[in-house]
Protein 1
Amino acid sequence: MSASVTRTTMMDVSRKAGVSLKTVSRVLNDEPNVREEVRLRVREAAEALNYHPNVLAQALVRRRSHLIGLVYENPSPSYVVELQMGVLERLRGERYRLVVIPVSSVAEHEQEIVGLLRSAALDGVVLAPPASDNPRILKDLTAAGIRFARIAPTRDVDLGPSNLIDDVSAAREVAQHLLDLGHRDIAVIQGDPTHASTAMRMKGYELAFAAAGARLSPDRIEQGLFTRDSGYAAAQRILSRSQRPTAILAQNDDMAVGALMAARERAVRVPDELSIAGFDDSEVSRITWPTITTVRQPVFEMAVSAADMVLAQLEHGDVRPRQDHPHTLILRESTGPVSPDRAKETA
Amino acid sequence: MSASVTRTTMMDVSRKAGVSLKTVSRVLNDEPNVREEVRLRVREAAEALNYHPNVLAQALVRRRSHLIGLVYENPSPSYVVELQMGVLERLRGERYRLVVIPVSSVAEHEQEIVGLLRSAALDGVVLAPPASDNPRILKDLTAAGIRFARIAPTRDVDLGPSNLIDDVSAAREVAQHLLDLGHRDIAVIQGDPTHASTAMRMKGYELAFAAAGARLSPDRIEQGLFTRDSGYAAAQRILSRSQRPTAILAQNDDMAVGALMAARERAVRVPDELSIAGFDDSEVSRITWPTITTVRQPVFEMAVSAADMVLAQLEHGDVRPRQDHPHTLILRESTGPVSPDRAKETA
DNA sequence: CTGAAAGCGCTAACAA
DNA sequence: TTGTTAGCGCTTTCAG
């Protein structure tokens, strides 16, 4: 039953080829100083014995597991997918493999996380928010000798190679867009408060409002968690008020989708009666109806870049300390001018 | 710079605690036969030195990497997400980690795949379609001594622990639903032909048609690839014909979404002028408008079960040979009765 | 150009 | 209850 009771080892190959262990090692690793004839003989022996190196043994002595971790906290599936695809894209063709490390709550488990990573024998990790923003984790990682790169951190940008997006400006731009359309009574669905970008985006909204001489009313702000359900629930609260806002700013697309569904359920027409804007430009924002106005955050590209930063450290020790990534306002169908009658009210 | 030039090892701990290596090993692995006092002393020493076992060394000697792979081919992101979440769910709290192994084309690379898995030092793998249906891969896996479990295979069900769904009946039921609504001119968007389920679902459709005394016209069958784009393109071809069908059967939800977008673009009202049904009950089918009628395939549960089967083999060697999973027809908004005038035509 | 010997850090027999 | 001695399968000095 049990297939390989004793795997064939380098010893077997060396015996069959009539050479020493070291010579086999040299051939297998394409090192110089082996006669061509011997090289061939060893290759044939390995082939004949169906030899495959034991990567664990290699890993032990080389101190390289060739395992890269991706640490993220649950929130939005579409975000996670892009993240993964980005890392996988960079790893394609390399010897490194991707180990996914979902963490339920970075905030609650910050002290255990690096232990977890260490016990996975990772050579390096790509940190998504909010882990990428957690100084404790960065410190522990450094102490443990695990290379890392950060995605979308909001602070201590010099504490490790970082991939940055300007959350504040991005948020300012979407808010600006709604204000330009004449909206003044705008509700906000915030993201998970343990993610620093939540506060950043809020700040961006505020800047836009201030510039327009408008004000963001505190009782128009609802708490969400970056999940569609939380967006749906928040929108329900918003829409059940006697006075309905004319627009909703959701801090990510999944919550915007939730808001859209809540609106549909109440037969509130989007964008005629209610504009909804999201954040991220994730896949879902393109398949809803109406499609969702959002601001593109190049998650995929950031992930590619982060993976690249990790590999760079592992392979030649050098690090690009930071990489800025552009955001783009994407106008779609879910936002429109405020309706004339509502415009009058606040005029 | 480089954090841990020389990591602290068991040796260091044994010296500090004044005991032998083996005693340290015993304490650290909670083995019996150590005096309580000694146990404590060793624990303290380990703590003081901030000792962490080298998992690679453990893996080498124990012949266990504690790495589980998930092998899948690209098609639909939502499918992959559910798959991963299922495996991760089962692995939560266990020592095992998930390594994702996306494969561009199983059909083209079938001979290289197991080499890839071996070089990742995986203890076991969960195989999603179409790898789960590939006899060559199953054979190589067995030869390599890598445990595995299959998700939704369609043949050779006894070639390894399998999680089954009745693709034929499931497909028959959705088709039946459209036929019951009076549709007779129905187009089909097929999935990737290298996935066996594509043929199975086709068969299910045919059975339903036969039972209704109807016929599936060959020129109503369009090839897709399980991706949204391919569904969109296929629907474009379908809808550009002079005579439009009254319904579309898409072999998964992503393609159904693509079809929905094509219909929207041409201002074809769904379901009034065109019914669209999908397959999978993936996340996206719930967020489009109209929401998509589909047949639920419990991907998450199958993944949990498959991961469980792998762990079972690894931990106690026993295997549940197969597990059947139910499908459920999910009626939503994208399907409706055929319009009276079109019904007359074919009457 | 080639090989012998000494580890990597840990676990497993087998004594003591 | 504890320690000694071999390995796991590979790479790496350092001689030859």
Note: Chain B touches chain A at residues 2-4, 7, 52, 54-57, 59-60, 65, 67, 77-78, 80-81, 84, 88, 95, 97-102, 115, 118-121, 142-145, 228, 257, 261, 264, 283-284, 287-289 (CB under 8 Å).
Protein 2
Amino acid sequence: MEISSALLALNALSQETRLLVFKKLVEFGVSGVNAGDLARELNVPANTLSFHLAHLERAGLVKSTRQGRNINYCFNRAQMNELIGFLNENCCVLEENIDCINNTKTC
Amino acid sequence: MEISSALLALNALSQETRLLVFKKLVEFGVSGVNAGDLARELNVPANTLSFHLAHLERAGLVKSTRQGRNINYCFNRAQMNELIGFLNENCCVLEENIDCINNTKTC
DNA sequence: TCGATATTTCTAGAATCATGGAAATATCAA
DNA sequence: TTGATATTTCCATGATTCTAGAAATATCGA
């Protein structure tokens, strides 16, 4: 994952309402939930929720599909895995590698 | 990890300069680096860097220790692990658990 | 003590963001 | 076609954030 995509994803998740939205979408699983039910569930005005869902979608973290009058939102597991992968690769040092990074051991 | 701490950490990492700062600190490893060298390395004015380092420190992602006139900054592996743990627990669905979440199987 | 160096805090301006009311769009059911 | 429902887009406002110059603080060496 590119750093620009990671920034988009981190940015999407770094806001309280959006993190709660995403968390809730994960709870709903791969079948997802429509915008109205989600708004009721989270007690957020429909237009505010729409704003945040669009933000999450731009970051690739959720996918939407229209189903009649409703629009179904579902989290995107692949992108979340990409983000966790990015953090592990770029922002994390595994215990067993600390010696290598400090050049006290060659790995 | 509490959701409020996760938000702080995500927020800290969701800004380009700070993500680059943190990435660089990870490269420097557990011995860390002082603010001046980091500023030169990243081409960021000292006061701007100071602002971002304070932000990362508030989020628990970096630790600082004064060493004479310099202040040494080092990433905090534990907090990063906490964050990745939070994302895995709250924002991620493992492939093998998808059936449970959709109630098509009991786990 | 004094001057030099390292870093932070103060400050102000520009930019971006979150929120929710109101209007617009899309779809359905009759 | 009309009215109802679901959702988004438009818009204005208040709040937050990033940036970097200038001033303040801390430490060292002489």
Note: Residues 15, 17, 45, 47-48, 51-52, 66, 68-70 of chain A lie near DNA strand C (CB under 10 Å from a C1').
Protein 3
Amino acid sequence: MATIKEIADLAGVSRGTVDRVLNKRGSVNPQTAEKILEIAQALDYKPNRAGLVLAAQKKNLKLGVILFGEGNPFFDDVIAGIRRKEEELACYNCSVIIKRVAVDTDEQIRAIDELLKEGANGIAISPTNDKRLATKIDEIYEAGIPVVTLNTDIKNSKRLAFVGSNYYQSGATAAGLMRLMAKNEAVHIGIIAGSSEILCHTERIAGFQHAIEKCEHIKIVETIMNFDDDFVSYDMTSQLLKKHPEINALFFAAGGVYGGCRSVLAQNRAKDMTIITFDQVDTTKEMIMKDVISATICQEPFVQGSRPLDILFTYLATGELPEQEYNYTAVDIRIKENLD
Amino acid sequence: MATIKEIADLAGVSRGTVDRVLNKRGSVNPQTAEKILEIAQALDYKPNRAGLVLAAQKKNLKLGVILFGEGNPFFDDVIAGIRRKEEELACYNCSVIIKRVAVDTDEQIRAIDELLKEGANGIAISPTNDKRLATKIDEIYEAGIPVVTLNTDIKNSKRLAFVGSNYYQSGATAAGLMRLMAKNEAVHIGIIAGSSEILCHTERIAGFQHAIEKCEHIKIVETIMNFDDDFVSYDMTSQLLKKHPEINALFFAAGGVYGGCRSVLAQNRAKDMTIITFDQVDTTKEMIMKDVISATICQEPFVQGSRPLDILFTYLATGELPEQEYNYTAVDIRIKENLD
DNA sequence: GATGAAAGTGTGCACGGGCACACAAGAGAA
DNA sequence: TTCTCTTGTGTGCCCGTGCACACTTTCATC
């Protein structure tokens, strides 16, 4: 592997001159610059990551993370990923600040301002899909602060990258599991959807519906909304089941899974019901072990915590952009036998 | 984060002395050593990875990889992972040598000797489960050459770590999919097993059988052996299906999947057959898209290529041992909707 | 013709750790 | 006493990169 020193020797100049050319810091004779660029290209020069990281320690980087509020156990697993990466980055003189906010654009913007005041050099955020937030992200991008979205994305903004599930595909995969478990029998599905403010919920439903349309013997009976509260979910699911005795499958696109399952159990309809959910929180595991939930689709929460920090650190320390803009986590099907 | 320099200043000695203590290189006054160790512990000293890697460049590390022979498309994905990591390690002055051998212990031992002659500092291998090979691994371990197994493991050896699937669990997961797709109907399963020399094949069958035993309405009709050849597999599957017209599910624990599926198609029995396989080679994808195979269980081949090299490099460059001995890749269920 | 600015270039240090070598102090032998 | 050997310690350089600063050369201005 070529080094700056080698390029300098070949070009007959000093390391400093090569450095100025490669980092576009000016004050170099155009002819010399061209020669250096040619040599660098010929040797396929790539800066040594260990050297870059070592030199970056002087920057004393601070990374900010903004997640949705407490009480959502899914994010505990995301935080586990953050903590792990935080530990790893600590020895590079890089620290992490976590803030948790409600599903509210104003709170998110305020959290960003707070992080900037605390000296954050980059921000990872699970955003609402709101234009005002997109504008804010563009603003701080122009000010040199990179942003990575995690878990759910925001449309039309200058965020560096997104880390999370391909929601459309994971909705379609839920439909595929319904298809496989149905064999050729008639299936009547009730959908329990999530907040329409969050991109990942709406996309999941879209992917599910599109894939279900191809199956003649599978019909969606009704779609209801829920708002992550298990007791609200319990009541709404109860009403849905009473209204449609023909329902033999449920698709939970967001939270409220536990309440919904309890309602199915209360009505003694678990045995003939196919239930597909998302994520793998403790209550969901419990319902899988009891054979109430057939399968749950996970989205690597640990990676959703660690990878955004990795992208931000790499960008800030070495200037390297992430390979892809969309860093999809695996569409991870879990059943009783492969839980954990 | 503490550095050697900081510890040295606090202890009133020089960097060299601290270095000798931390790396147990002797020639230090016992009292001074104790004092240094205390300070290091109090500051929770962990060496800076960037510094270590930079210093390790002088070692000019060489990593050897031994994989099963050409013609097995699964290993192409493993090699993709190796190539990626090789590229990453190139700038740390670390190179990779790949050798491919038959499923044969003598060839494997010969390949190890060749790699050592070529100056390899560490070896990754997908081994046969043979005592002679285990002895060889122990020998080179004593000589300071670490070994990591990948894809399939070897019992009772001093290999540093294993990277691959939890076969028992993935067999059980295959059974779980059978369970879910059966609902409450009777299922008669034919198993197409793989070579008994390879640990991962035998363990998969064990996990499958154990999980199936719990399901009253699912029975294993017959288990046949195949040896990865699609034409042999075609004939054997044909005979199995003719012998047992009641078979409505097939479990392929190893190779020969494509030949088996072609036989099912030739007999017009695909529509009512539930087929579960392993891995995601092109021919398997084709059969999933044609609704012949219901689901396939993957084992992150890319990770099986990259992670062993990561473990070896980290160990050789920084002295850090892998966190776990068993680095299980995900039991990754794929259906039509989440292929790729 | 001295002064100053501007453009272009080289050098030195920092970042953290490994390791070779130099060097000091003390003990034992000639 | 002088020489040698041992034990313990400090120093300098290397790994690759970034960046501040000092230096040279050229050209325009007073």
Note: DSSP finds 13 helices and twelve strands in chain A.
Protein 4
Amino acid sequence: MSSAPVFFHVDLDAFFASVEQMDNPGYKGQPVIVGAAPGHRGVVSACSYEARKFGVHSAMPISEAFRRCPQGIYLPVRMSRYAEISGVVMGILGRFSPDVRPISIDEASLDMTGTGLLFGPPWQTAENLKSEVLERAGVPLSVGIAPNRFLAKMASDFKKPNGLYEVLPGQEESFVEAVGLPKLWGLGKKTMERLHAICLDTLPRLRQMSEDALKSLMGEAAGKFLYNAIRGRDIGMYSDTAKSHSISHETTFPEDTADWEIISLSLLDLSHQVMYRLFAEDGKSRTVSIKYRYSDFSTFSCQNTLSHFVLSAEELYKTGLDLIKAKWNPRIPLRLIGIGFDKVQSGEGSQKELFPTAYERKGLVEKAVFNMQKKAGDATPVKASLLGHPGKRKM
DNA sequence: TCTGGGGTCCTAGGACCC
DNA sequence: TCTGGGGTCCTAGGACCC
């Protein structure tokens, strides 16, 4: 007899803020806001539920958060600390399911199918999981239980914070109704606006549409997604097939700038950060992409696929520099610059040339430095601008 | 309101090939 | 003459998520 499918979705509540409250008990019960410093450019990364009472939420500009909650405790992001706690939580999850898929630093999807004999019924298991995480990692989490990953994800959100909710088989459609169309995962503001414009922004009306009709209205993928999502069916989220991915870093300048020295030096630093991450995961890529944002917030990107894998931060930087030189209109100051690799593959079988190119030799040196730093327990790249690089360049 | 940084996936058009 | 069909790769932009 095969067991009915059961999935858990776990989500750490206001994670960054919860960690800060655990590390500083004086912050408990206080409006904690983690993100950019007030007075600087940036947004709220996470905030405690006490802060949400003031109307503060994540992704809100920090200036607006400060206006709404001047008495808040404003803290910088301590990503390595959060990663540490996340690791403890993921370790606990691994003892509850052989199939744990981390979605982000504070979320994971677990296949719990067939674990009933070992742990008991799902609800009981979820309660045990919640108390073990609180006890051993010190942070609260919400759990959603459902017959598929998509519903489990939304169920984890349904009773937050410190929530637990179970969607039983047969309740798929009624749960989607309880969640409501605007809060359906994967359906954002733009799509809602579009649906509204064609009078299809209610569940009953949408459910009258055939899959083909939705596809022709919304496009192949979006139509298929919508047709299944509004029925609470799995939409194939969090697939485990390893694909190529991307690695990128970007930075917003403290002030908009048209200063070529600032822009090129930033690009150089970012290039080193990106290349070191590629080294760290032993990946390879031929596609360099850059992103730039003008002072009016209009944002553009472009990319260049080389005939060979990029071998060094120098080569990455040079390729990105050529792209930005060709695209940027220097009469308009830039707000942001970013660079990255697209279509990163696993690096096994990296070619070794008999006669290494200059870039390849540079890459070997960079890699050696990276490995030394890794051994010394410091895997962060030396700031390129501190390596005595000439940064200044003529356009 | 004055808007971070890191991602994923999809689309549409063009180049090129058979 | 006036025009195939399918496939792959590349690119830029957009929607969405955490």
Note: Chain A has 15 helices and 13 strands.
